[in-house]
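Exercise 3.2. Students should predict the tertiary structure of the chain below and write it as structure tokens, then compare their answer with the key that follows.

Predict this chain's 3D structure.
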Amino acid sequence: MSSSSAHRGGLFRSSSSSASASASASRRQLRSSCLASSSSSRQHPFSVVFGGSPSFTVRRSLNHSSGSSSSRYHFLSLSCAASAMMSSESESTAANSNNDEQQQIKMTRMAEWLKKADAVCFDVDSTVINTEGIDELADYFGAGEAVAKLTKEAMEGGMKFEEALDARLKLINPTQQGVDKFMAMHAFPIMPGMRELVVKLLTSGKQVFLVSGGFRQMIAPVANEIGVPVNKIYANNIMFDEEGKYAGFDDTEPTSRSGGKAEAVKRIKASNGFQTVVMVGDGMTDLEARVEGGADAFICFTGVVRRDAVAEGADLAVGEMAQIMDLLL
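Answer key:
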């Protein structure tokens, strides 16, 4: 068959010797890896185009002579493709099944932790509420973009929390009057299912605390909205001078520094005689609360943002508050 007639028939062949050698090698590879009868192959209406690489393309051919290489190998290629696809699907199914099994084990263990927990501590930003409060405050004062970058770095463990807190507040440079106006006109959206979860925990005899690297001035209204007493808030305080100008933050608060949430949970356990406490949050500072004497188990909440390093280090990762509620049933 001439090159042009092969082209019209749909079967493209290379005229170079290197392409022919590559095609021969491909055919030998195909013959050794696939099992199919040549008689079945000759009856199939498709043929295989062998190019200069091991990949194969199926083309409809006008030449179905029993002696042609195309008729000998076209069905084998389809068998190989089907076999490879089935193998890939089988591996994917097995992987998904294993992931589901591991998730079920984690959920069962967390249900046990929650059952015996004396208290559950929640981070606030991107957990109880669907935003970062300090970023919202920064937007109001015109420093949103720069502060958001520092928040992201701090939450992912890229810098010490106290350094990030100091740098962000200096960028914002808030005033007492400005913060008051911001709070008067701004309400933080509560995550779906959060109120119901707090009610369920309280009626189950467990206490609820808010442990946050945010600011008490902004968290108190959130606590009131979800039914958590303000005396169960562990958070930072923005300080102002007599003229209402920014004067720093209270660095005696444990949540003002890296590892501070672990210290806060330790204080909660010691002052209340608790044996078991579960921490829920989205950031690295929340994961750090799970230390000896601190939180006994940690749930990573990914409903607002997923931080892979935090989720992978957690005892369980959930995307909805309802998933935690289900573990209490």
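Discussion points: The two ends are 75 Å apart (CA to CA). Strands lie at 47-50, 56-59, 119-122, 207-215, 233-236, 238-240, 246-249, 277-281, 297-301, 316-318.
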